Amino acid sequence: MLRYGGKRLLALIPVILGITFVIFAVLNYTPGDPARLLLGFNATEESVEALRREWKLDDPFFVRYVRYLGGVIQGDLGISWRYGVPVAKELAVRIPNTLRLAAISVLIMILIGIPMGLISAVKQYSLLDHLMLFAALLLTSLPTFWLALMMMIKFSLELRWLPASMPVYGAVTWKHWVLPVFMCAANLTASLVRTARSHMLEVIRSDFVRTARAKGATEFRVIAYHALRNVMMPVVTLVGINFNLLMGGTVITEQVFGVSGVGSLLISSVRTKDVPMAMGCILFIAVMIGLVNLAVDYFYVLVTPRLRSRYEKKKRKEAGA
Amino acid sequence: MEDLLRIENLHISYRTMEGTVYAVNGVNLSVEKGETLGLVGETGAGKTTTALSILNLLPKPAASVDQGRILFQNRDLLAASKREIRKIRGDRIAMIFQDPMTSLNTSFRIGNQVAEVLRIHRKELGKREIEERTARLLETVGIGRERWDDYPHQLSGGMKQRVMIAMALACSPELLLADEPTTALDVTIQAQVLQLMRHLKEEFGMAMMLITHDLGVVAENCERVAVLYAGEVLETGTAEEIFDGPVRHPYTEGLLGAIPSPDHKISRLSPVAGQTPDPSKLLPGCVFAPRCPHCSKRCLEDKPKERQRGGHRIKCHLFADKAEWRE
Amino acid sequence: MSILIILVLSLFGAGCGSGAGDLRVSGEAGKDYLVFGISQEPKYLTAGRSNGQIPNILQTQMYNNLISLDEEGNCRPELAESWSVSEDGLTYTFYLRKDVRFHNGEPMTAEDVAFSLDYHAGKLADYPGGTQAKSFLTYYDSAEILDDYTVAVHYTDVYGPTLPCLADVIVGILPKKAFLEMGQDLFEASPIGTGPYRFVESKPGTSMELLANEVYFDGVPAIPHLIFSVCSDMDAAVIALESGELDFLAGPSVSYREIVEGSPWLTWYCADSPGQAWIVFNTGLGTDRGGSRFFSDLRVRQAVAFAVDQEELTQMATDGSGKPVTSLIPEGFAGYSPMPDYYPKDADQARSLLAEAGYPDGFSVKVRTITTSTYYKLAEVLTGQLREIGIDASLEVLEAGAYWASLMSDYDYDIAIGNYTATTPDADIPLMQHYATGAYLNYSNHSIMELDQVLTEARGELEEEKRVKLYRRAMELILKENCLVVPVCSFAVTGAGDSRLKHVEAAPYSDWKVYQWTW
């Protein structure tokens, strides 16, 4: 199993390389001169030229790409063209925020979304089931942007329970994270509830669940032990997908609530064609997504004996007697 | 001989999108200690539904038991609490299902799946003992104990069904419900598995309700037979009474006539004409009347009552006037 | 199910309609900081390097100029106590205050002034491009240091608005020693000026923190901590304002006025800004590069001018806060005089002009715009008005980078929206920047000799009346004779803030003087 993990990890490298290449090319060949964008439209030709020289923008594409890669391998992500700060430094500030949003959202998905879906399936047609389905439907249908603003109005303005945005002056408390996390997690949790529910509904009708019941197992054991194992796979895959969606997809949340995350950094650096910064953000996102996919695949193999037996040796070969 | 299991006037219906489906309409059955009862009928006759209802394994909320009693050791299983039923399942009454491919949990090792029965009902035995017993069970059904750690996907169809049998027998139940246990297997394996079941039945002194649509299997394995059609038991009797006759329910006649025989050369099979009735409609008269070659006006209007001669019971108006056949 | 939906929605509905209760905690007056919301990040904090409404706000707090302008446009002392002009109008001598210190403690002297002017004008060898302030130093030649506190600024030619330009916040004075020691990039990371607020730190993309300058020569600001918060989403910013997390918000769109005025805790500030929006054509007039297929024909341009309903455009694009304009020179600017509307709405004439030009059935064209709401709405309404005269117009939305490239260098558009943001109240600035041959902001892709001559003459003319006459001629050339652009409207500068703030005045040039405010 470890070998499988190791192989997959190595396989990640060419993928990341490919991504960096494509993005670098796109940033390079799309219209818009980064120097002019930075200096503004009133800037003189000379100053634009000087900047282009400083950034070595006129070197051939491949030279610049290889130079960039060389830097990355040594741990140098370059200097932001826009801010003049090292890319790694700014990312170091922003990554924890994005990760926090994503991680807490995933936690909510797992701790609230999955149980809700499972209970809903087990107690199909009950009031609980209807309530949960309704809530899930509401959350998937209502645009999260609107929902977030509505919550802001309700909880920040009227009830004054929660702050409306990240403070620029003063300490950040857990209260500041509530609304942003809600906005990130709401939609995705709702879809997870529905997925978990529908898979569970399928699984509890399957033959092996009937066999488990016929053996006299308690309902709890039937659900939590027999059924759950088989539901986990699509559910975990969806959690993985959702986490990946959050990697770059927290942009709107960041902008609405003023969270300093990677998403808004990416957008603004692409807009201003701040190539080093944009590449840094993409690199982070690509690596995260790669790792998460790997984890999900690994989990998949771990839980599916049919696949796992390919990668591990038999436990009790000849158990004697 | 006392009845181990007696089903009285069982009515089961399913609520579906298109309306109510009447699956079981007044079934009366009994299984005696140590005997094998064959439950035969066409697809959709209500055999599986009847069997599932014994252990309360019917799909809820769609299915509902509208009437009837199922007496096991003088206790009505339909009135028993969930806890009581769970105690019986796998311990006193065990069930094996039709498709071994899907009936085993692919995520767990077969040894564990068999051991689970013991872990549920014989907790007091302790880990070592349970493992040992499981290994022996595997051997008994013809699977070596070295396959304890295998996963279901590593076994063939026949072997999977053997695992199911091992699971069913773990606690030496008094009654085994076998729902078409060999239908999904090919003929040679079928024979092996049936032989195994016969052997074990003798060894354990088990009673068995063998559900099948294969009359050949019935003939080989069952002492008594019940013929199910459209949710009703049309005929019950010993294997000889059913197969050798001389009198039979017209439906049974039709079934037997439909079997090809290697001895007689005939150019065409004679199947029973027509189709099983629509289960969402309850007919006023005899359920088989529309297809019966002896159908009369009375058959279409009045439901025949069950009449018996000795242990042989038949539901047909043809026997209404025969003196020996009493209600 | 449906009952539940109604219940939940009514929960929210109840929330939206009712005014809130006590939003702000009473103990907060007398707090020592102010959070100022801005809609985007200023590109640079070094004086001169950024131009626009947002950078202006910050530069106003951090830097000083030699002189300043009062409401009537008269020059007042700032860093210079007094000044004199030479006979030939080519040398301005400034006598500087002696009590001014930079934020790093160094005293401000004539050296710093000379350095700053040279830097802005691009006269320094290391920084040949200069800054955006270069266009405010027209004809600048050199700055001669006469003594520690006296500097003579030499110009190569007489330039009417010399002094008002020097008063523009963009020509801020920088510390020579610190700047040269640190170099442009490091200086940008921690800029130093003489202004009422000094720079503390900035979090890229998020906020900038300033601190009151304890030794400011004109009095220490009442509010010690000033934090600029970048709010990319206006809705969220207004909510933050209402909930007390923002104390002031610059530039909220007019659609929020009702909310702000409806709240007892907030005040709405509004002033006419001299900025303008126009419809520009890619004329190709007098240049080698061709212009638009359609709009290089004067008649087609005039047809559009006749088709345009200014009132409607203004109303729709600015939510009623703007005013239609007929002159490209904002009212109140030196050189301004009211101009007639050369192309009052006349759909028939528009159509006949089109037919004359060879398009009796109109033609298909794309109106280029960007996503900023004023531009977008203007373009939207314009397409409707064009369709009325038979031009099948549709919108083409570009990203800012590509958009400005197409209006300033590529010239690959047909018709688009242009604008002018004003900071110095002199006609020369907008006209030279946009209408001279080869000017950077020459959106209409034209080169008209006579216009260049008129503008050059006007900028060198010191007599008010003559200037006005010259500029009228310029307007005629631009609007009447060549219809290079169609002027639409002026904007309003808006702001919304906590009502407890005192001494807040609406700033037409976006120069909110936070250093004058108190809680």
Description:
The complex is a heterotrimer of chains A (321), B (327) and C (519). By secondary structure, chain A is mostly helical. Chain A contains 14 helices and no strands. Chain B has 2 domains: 239 residues, P-loop containing nucleotide triphosphate hydrolases (Rossmann fold, 3-Layer(aba) Sandwich); 70 residues, no CATH class. In chain C, the strands form 3 sheets. In chain C, strands 1, 8, 9, 10, 11, 12, 13, 14, 15, 16 and 17 form an 11-stranded mixed β-sheet that branches. In chain C, strands 4-5-7-6 form a 4-stranded antiparallel β-sheet, covered by helices on one side. About 3% of the residues of chain C have low confidence. Classes of the chains: A mainly alpha (321), B alpha/beta (327), C alpha+beta (519).
* Uncertain stretches of 5 or more adjacent residues of chain A: 316-321
Q: What class, by secondary structure content of chain C? A: alpha+beta
Largest sheet of chain A: none
How far is the first residue's CA from the last residue's CA of chain C? 51 Å
- Based on CA inertia axes, which overall geometry of chain A fits? flat
- How much strand of chain A? under 5%
Task: Give average pLDDT of chain C, whole number.
Answer: 85
In CATH, the homologous superfamily of the domain at 91-254 and 297-320 in chain A goes by the name MetI-like
CATH topology of the domain at 91-254 and 297-320 in chain A: MetI-like fold
In brief, what are we looking at here?
The complex is a heterotrimer of chains A (321), B (327) and C (519). Chain B contains 11 helices and 12 strands.
List descriptors.
heterotrimer; B: 327 residues; alpha/beta; Rossmann fold; 2 domains; 8-stranded mixed β-sheet; 4-stranded antiparallel β-sheet; 11 helices; 12 strands; C: 519 residues; alpha+beta; 11-stranded mixed β-sheet; 17 strands; 32% helix
Strand-helix topology:
The complex is a heterotrimer of chains A (321), B (327) and C (519).
Chain A: H1 2-29, H2 34-39, H3 45-54, H4 61-73, H5 87-122, H6 127-141, H7 144-158, H8 175-204, H9 207-214, H10 219-249, H11 251-257, H12 262-271, H13 275-303, H14 305-311
Chain B: E1 3-16, E2 19-32, E3 36-41, H1 47-54, E4 63-72, E5 75-76, H2 82-88, E6 93-96, H3 100-103, H4 110-121, H5 127-140, H6 157-169, E7 175-179, H7 187-204, E8 207-212, H8 215-221, E9 224-229, E10 232-238, H9 239-243, H10 250-257, H11 297-301, E11 306-309, E12 312-315
Helix pairs in contact in B: 4-5, 4-6, 5-6, 6-7
Chain C: H1 2-17, E1 33-38, H2 53-62, E2 67-69, E3 75-77, E4 80-85, E5 91-96, H3 110-121, E6 140-147, E7 150-155, H4 162-167, H5 176-189, E8 197-203, E9 207-212, E10 225-230, H6 234-243, E11 248-250, H7 257-262, E12 266-281, H8 298-307, H9 310-318, E13 323-324, H10 347-356, E14 364-369, H11 373-388, E15 392-397, H12 400-410, E16 415-420, H13 428-435, H14 449-460, H15 464-481, E17 485-498
Parallel strand pairs in C: 1-10, 1-11, 14-15, 14-16
Antiparallel strand pairs in C: 2-3, 4-5, 5-7, 6-7, 8-9, 9-10, 11-17, 12-16, 12-17, 13-17
Helix pairs in contact in C: 8-10, 9-11, 13-14, 14-15
